[in-house]
Amino acid sequence: MEKGAKLAYRRVLLKLSGEAFMDSSVGYGIDTRVVASIAEQLSEVHRMGVELACVIGGGNIFRGVSEGAQGIDRATADFMGMLATVINALALQDALEKKGVYTRVQSAITMREVAEPFIRRRAVRHLEKGRIVLFAAGTGNPYFSTDTAAALRALEIGADAIFKATKVDGVFDRDPVKYPDARMFHTLTYLDVLNRELEVMDSTAVSLCMDNNLPIVVFNLFQSGNLRKLMLGQKIGTKVCAKV
């Protein structure tokens, strides 16, 4: 499917967890085969004409709120986690450019040798020129998650929606891995998510989306073709919005 397809979304921010990049055989690090597979899906929707930005977590390397961070000052641990997201962004950039897709990494922490500083107008211009923009280092501030960074960046670039990539089909009433009879929600309101404390995104991110009426779509990135189907308006995963 190339440019010219009737798209349901023109500009999207994709939120990827660092764990999505993880080498499952060792439980941490980067599996380049997985990154290449994700890059293939991104390049497919890019060819359709979608303006695509990404925020990537760093949990496959270091998370500021993880058990491994115990004993480290919280702000310091969060900065360490931000640096981990830069590593992941560079890995995805390399995989995308091997597929012929032009990308830019923009970091909220200045490191000009490896990434551009985040500048909103420049990010929007990159998208308009057909480049995939990878936002790294969260918001640049401790105590804020990459979920909140994703909501913030999506609003700043005028995205139509946030796509939250997971390894399950959507949002469930309980853990579908542990409970086979768990029920999946096809639509939820922001208040449903907050009141039920459902694990969609953290409460700050959900509140930011609610205040600005930005839809969140939670879907299984590892089900082949799902990202393309979403762009074409097919009902995949769980949509979080103002009204059901």
Summarize the structure.
This protein has 244 residues and is α/β, with parallel strands linked by helices. Helix content is 34%, strand content 19%.
Sum up the structure in keywords.
244 residues, alpha/beta, Carbamate kinase, two-stranded antiparallel ribbon, 34% helix
Report on the structure:
- The protein is α/β, with parallel strands linked by helices and about 240 residues long.
- It has one domain (about 10-240): Acetylglutamate kinase-like (Carbamate kinase, 3-Layer(aba) Sandwich).
- Helices cover about 35% and strands about 20% of the residues.
- It has helices at about 30-45, 75-95, 120-130, 145-155, 190-195, 205-210, 225-230; strands at about 10-15, 50-55, 105, 115, 130-135, 160-165, 170, 185, 185-190, 215-220, 240.
- The strands form 2 sheets. The protein has a 9-stranded mixed β-sheet with strand order 4-3-5-2-1-6-10-11-9, with helices on both faces. The protein has a two-stranded antiparallel ribbon with strand order 7-8.
- α5 packs antiparallel against α6.
- The protein is globular and about 45 Å long.
- The protein starts with 10 loop residues before the first strand and ends with a strand.
What proportion strand? 15-25%
Instruction: Sum up the overall morphology in one term.
Output: globular
CATH architecture: 3-Layer(aba) Sandwich
CATH superfamily: Acetylglutamate kinase-like
Helix content: 25-40%
Overall mean confidence score, pLDDT: 93
User: Terminal Cα separation, in Å?
Assistant: 31 Å
Backbone CA Rg: 17 Å
Count of individual beta strands: 11
- The helix tally amounts to 7
Strand order of the largest sheet: 4-3-5-2-1-6-10-11-9
User: What's the domain count?
Assistant: 1
CATH-defined fold name:
Carbamate kinase
Order of helices and strands: EHEHEEHEHEEEEHHEHE
Low-pLDDT runs = none
- Name of the CATH class: Alpha Beta
Largest sheet, in brief, is: 9 strands, mixed
Protein structure class:
alpha/beta
